[in-house]
Amino acid sequence: MSLIASIDFLKEELNKEKKKGHLIGLVPTMGYLHEGHLSLIRRAKQENDIVVVSIFVNPTQFAPNEDFESYPRDIERDYEMAREAGADIIFNPSVQEMYPQGASTFVIVEGDITQKLCGGSRPTHFKGVTTVVAMLLNLILPDFAYFGQKDAQQAIVLKKMARDLHIATKLVVCPIVRENDGLALSSRNVYLNEIERNQALILSRTLFEAQARVDEGEINVEELKRFMISNINTMDLAEIDYVEILDEDTLDNIEIIEKKALAAVAVRFGKTRLIDNVILKRGE
After folding, report:
1. Widest CA span of the chain, in angstroms?
2. pTM value surpassing 0.85
3. What tens digit of pLDDT does each residue of 144-163 get?
4. Is residue 206 classed exposed, middle or buried when 0-12, 13-18 and 19+ CB atoms within 10 A define those classes?
5. pLDDT per position as a tens digit, 118-134
6. Which DSSP letter does residue 143 get?
């Protein structure tokens, strides 16, 4: 497996593979890989000849008061994990390589789709996400790119970007991977102490209970949100950023669940902000 930091060298290597007619799959990450990332790499390997895993902690998606400097990094660990999962190339550029001096161009998806949920409390976040993903898609020109459902808003925003810009790459969204106790895997979970981690389990439990209530016939969005907020607030360390139930494709506000809806939460436990979601499905 190759570890590449240079854009020019990456293009050279990929051109060789494309001349052979090989399908290219991309798994964009910020590193500190966990089983959620590895599941994306395995899926990509099943569907492509060559799998590129980008490991780049992207500064433009962090606000000044966020954890860019402290975000966990361990390229040697990540290299071995990605190799064992089936990656062929690790692309690990520097900030200077991706954003050369004087870089001032960004890709911005406008509208409510980027202004609610995580965009509400992190107003510059998606500007950075769409820009870096657009750069990666442009550099690598993959046939497929793989993302996790845990970052549901990100996946919806990136799909809109791809549609609007006529990007040929097919974006594939894969299921959330969870610990045995239900906690959604995240690189930020390492920040949690034992008490915070135990209390964080309320997120998945609340989301699963919301689905159970929909199964029992509750389809009123406000009623479901009231339950979810009340349930999360039973944990004394929980500080809610948002609890929302929205259209699963557009993130538009809805009053009742017609067929499917995205139930999404963002909650701080101590200094750690966690997100989670489920697709609420109404029975036939």
Report:
1. 58
2. yes
3. 999 999 999 999 999 999 99
4. buried
5. 999 899 999 999 999 99
6. S
